[in-house]
Amino acid sequence: MAAIFQGIGAAAAVAALPPAEKFHSQSPRFLSARKGSLFVVRSDGRPSLGSSPRSRGAQRLITNAVAAKADASVTSTASKPGHELLLFEALREGLEEEMDRDPRVCVMGEDVGHYGGSYKVTKGLATKYGDLRVLDTPIAENSFTGMGIGAAMTGLRPIIEGMNMGFLLLAFNQISNNCGMLHYTSGGQFKIPVVIRGPGGVGRQLGAEHSQRLESYFQSIPGIQMVACSTPYNAKGLMKAAIRSENPVILFEHVLLYNLKERIPDEEYVLSLEEAEMVRPGEHVTILTYSRMRYHVMQAAKTLVNKGYDPEVIDIRSLKPFDLYTIGNSVKKTHRVLIVEECMRTGGIGASLTAAITENFIDYLDAPIVCLSSQDVPTPYAGTLEEWTVVQPAQIVTAVEQLCQ
């Protein structure tokens, strides 16, 4: 099954920027006319239309800039070990390394083959590994998701790509009743080492159906692990860990983070699927976040530091199960918790995280847990309205000020 379309033109998107500096990225078909051009996010938070990944400038890029202390380093990334990759390239590198290492690893989904995927994560893999290991499928999420789960039962290690995470609602039966439960219902006769991945989250005027956050939909399914990447470094490490896991793993990628740039090690590394990342140590309040909201939180942290606050920022990464060891140690230190998520408020990750912290660490809290979430409304197409539905840095600053009073 060959892909209908072939071309270059990856869909470009960037991490969240301050309102005055926001811009609208364009759809893949418009970007295809600008071959080799990519949006990148530089250390000053400003977007730049750069050249192709092979000819990018050496201006220093920081994806997890800490606002607490001045950055004393002035050396360029060219003098540091490792290599620079955009987030979608890091995902591809991790996937390719695992396909080289294990012949059982295969990829399936719409346009993942010769077109290279809607966001170019699988670009070039069909040419290298052939059409049987990089399988283009019809537009039928329930069918190819079920096929991938069946392939995992026979011993393969499939990666199922949803062109958009919202489309995987069509495969909810296969993911919930088969993927999550078959190991148990078969009495341990079958393992389901499958990875389900794809872009999601609120983009730039993608409309309600293409702005889904499905973390809350899948978190209640027994037997499934969920992780969310937020940097090129953890995108690659989590991809490799998910592929090697014997459990079914859903890897959430944010549509606006694919062109985030970072230097990652040349050596092989694999991250834990169950560990959070300490982004910024602090003393006054614990801010728990993940995915795109990590960058909204770090923008807010700059303002908070200037106002005399010392927030501790943790990227939880593992959405199921939570890393309660890291989270708990932070709560015991700061005694205040703010959760910032892009998921919906009702039944979201923040609600589950609030319950877990309350059950385990309520004696260490000096104030009620505050959770900032997206509004429980369909995401509007209009850009100004879209912004109103998602947590903004100013709201984070206000919440921390109120928490620390």
Which helices and strands appear, and what pairs or packs with what?
Elements: H1 28-31, E1 38-41, E2 47-50, E3 83-86, H2 87-101, E4 105-109, H3 125-129, E5 134-136, H4 141-153, E6 157-161, H5 172-179, H6 182-185, E7 195-200, H7 215-218, E8 225-228, H8 232-244, E9 249-254, E10 261-264, E11 277-280, E12 285-289, H9 293-306, E13 311-315, E14 318-320, H10 324-334, E15 337-344, H11 349-361, E16 370-374, H12 383-389, H13 393-403
Parallel strand pairs: 4-5, 4-6, 6-7, 7-9, 8-9, 12-13, 12-15, 15-16
Antiparallel strand pairs: 1-2, 3-10, 8-14, 11-13
Helix pairs in contact: 2-8, 4-5, 9-13, 10-11
Q: Can you walk me through this structure?
A:
By secondary structure, the chain is an alpha/beta fold. The chain contains 13 helices and 16 strands. The strands form 4 sheets. It has a 7-stranded mixed sheet with strand order 5-4-6-7-9-8-14, sandwiched between helices. A 5-stranded mixed sheet has the order 11-13-12-15-16, sandwiched between helices. Helix 2 packs parallel to helix 8 (232-244), helix 4 packs parallel to helix 5 (172-179) and helix 10 (324-334) packs across helix 11 (349-361). It is globular.
